[in-house]
Known about the structure:
By secondary structure, this protein is α/β, with parallel strands linked by helices. The chain has 14 helices and 13 strands. Among the domains are: 173 residues, Alpha-Beta Barrel (TIM Barrel); 37 residues, no CATH class. It is globular, with a radius of gyration of 21 Å. The two termini are 30 Å apart.
Amino acid sequence: MNTRERYTRTVGFGRPDRPYFHHAYGLMPGVIDRWHDEGLPATVDEAAIREYFGFDPKGAGVAVNRYLHPPFEPQVLEETDEYVVQRQANGQVTKMYRALSSLPHAVGYPVETPGDWPAIAARLVYDRDRFADRWVEQARQAQEDGLPLSVGGAGFYWFPRDLLGDERLCLWYYEYPDLVREITETYCDLLCSLAEEIAAHVQVDAAHLGEDMAYRGGSMIGPATFREFLLPCYRRYFGIFRQRGTRLFSIDTDGRVDGLMPLFIEAGVNVFSPMEVRAGNDVVALRREYGTRMAFTGGLDKLVLPLGRAAIDAELERVIPPMLELGGYLPSLDHRVVIETPLRDFAYYVKRVRELTGCPEQAAAVAHVN
């Protein structure tokens, strides 16, 4: 069974030869340096972690720019011994502290007043130049090579959030609803135009959108806002791929998602990730509630990895056996590996997942890490 078959059957409640197992979210800053100090070969950088630990290959994507065109020119605006302030390609201004193992956080946005929007809208026009040269041949070749093919992108909350920030967006749903609707629909128009072009040439295995529209207390927006501003866009965009045979429609959002689940099912979503445990998500409980209506990837608490092997065993045994009973579950950590994680215990996590998913022979792939 090739990777494409294994992935689609794992997530689609089929019966693969073994569950697809991947390293989805990468490492927090500083982890790779720690692991090098602990014996990881210097030649293994973060990009090589998947191959080094023998994870299943990452799927392929369609080579197309689904965002601002042209993007902003990345630029360092301020640099000190303590932090770096940069303008990113999406127009955000971010601040990154050197001494912390954290991701950059936004301190400025490309749309801070209604008058800023027209200049951004001009960067959201459909253009065939958004597609890379030979994108069709590359996509078809990936599938022939046995890789799953997906189309990703920012979701219909994530995109305006990138432009405005969470707080401003949540206020503007009420203060400037027509403008937020225009922003969302303009972006949806772009994605749908690209989807029509893609679907006319290749059948993608999965359509995926990132949202990050929840925190540990629940959704950033209420059901009425979701239905008014997001639901029509989801139905329209996913419908293009569904009509051409795509069967997997996935959402990635951090935070607590149980309150969002019925809305996303209504929108046509049937795969959810990363299911952060410390935000209150329990994939085993959600599986009991939703059955085969929702597949899950993730749901393994990344924060148990620094706690030792007994804690790792307890977490894996809590989740993996009951989730494999019905299928529709792709084992994965619920986000990036944190800097407190020892190399040897990450290797132990990989080994134990393989053993619990019936792949003891592949557990030997990490025997070189003590």
